[in-house]
């Protein structure tokens, strides 16, 4: 069974010209027709920068996909929750979800980070575990976050996917630590490197899709059809699930 996955840091809907334009994000996704999309930097009524819009609800409604949201930052203003974090949309049923903080005593002074976990029923009695996260830009903090992620991946029995803006270059020590638990879809391809940042003239890869070893990667692309819709390019991968992936 083949599935098309995408990870996209949408920069809270802000295009490179400074305007808020979720229409372009949705149009890009619609053209690519992914089965599952992970998002970073999604606002839910968060602030003036995104016009207090619930971007997760808008994308879900516009694309006709169900999903899950996991806040990294939550603030209550009067009677409204204002949230910022990771999201996931799927053309298949999301049957369970949880949101986990990526924090420890070493991370108390840093921007809060989280990992969204979802079980997706990609076919009757066939589950795919999907994690969506956005790591710190600070290497010391990343080390703790990667350790927490590695433990969570190791405890997963079902075929699984980890995707997100990892803020690290391919081949670094933390990338290798993740590779010990899963496979970078880009590494399996002849091109191997797929720069995603900055979007207008990408020179480095920050966005990744890792899959459990039994999952085969068919094709990978850094989608450059609308490079000014965000400051990152989305990464797109077609994967093939193992035949025995049943529950």
Describe the SSE topology:
Blueprint: E1 2-9, H1 22-32, E2 36-44, H2 55-63, E3 66-77, E4 80-90, E5 94-101, E6 114-123, E7 126-134, H3 139-154, E8 160-165, H4 173-179, E9 183-184, E10 207-211, E11 216-222, E12 235-240
Parallel strand pairs: 1-2, 7-8
Antiparallel strand pairs: 1-12, 2-4, 3-4, 5-6, 6-7, 8-10, 9-10, 11-12
Short descriptors:
247 residues, 4 helices, six-stranded mixed beta sheet, 38% strand, alpha+beta, 12 strands, globular
Task: Describe the protein's architecture and organization.
This protein is α+β, with helices and mostly antiparallel strands and 247 residues long. It is built from 4 helices and 12 strands, in the order βαβαβββββαβαββββ. It has helices at 22-32, 55-63, 139-154, 173-179; strands at 2-9, 36-44, 66-77, 80-90, 94-101, 114-123, 126-134, 160-165, 183-184, 207-211, 216-222, 235-240. Strands 3-4-2-1-12-11 form a 6-stranded mixed sheet. Strands 5-6-7-8-10-9 form a 6-stranded mixed sheet, with no helix packed on it. Helix 1 runs parallel beside helix 2 (55-63). The longest helix has 16 residues, at 139-154. It is globular and about 45 Å long. The two termini are 15 Å apart.
Task: Give a brief outline of the structure.
By secondary structure, the protein is α+β, with helices and mostly antiparallel strands. The chain is built from four helices and twelve strands; from the N terminus they run βαβαβββββαβαββββ. A hairpin with a 2-residue loop joins strand 6 and strand 7.
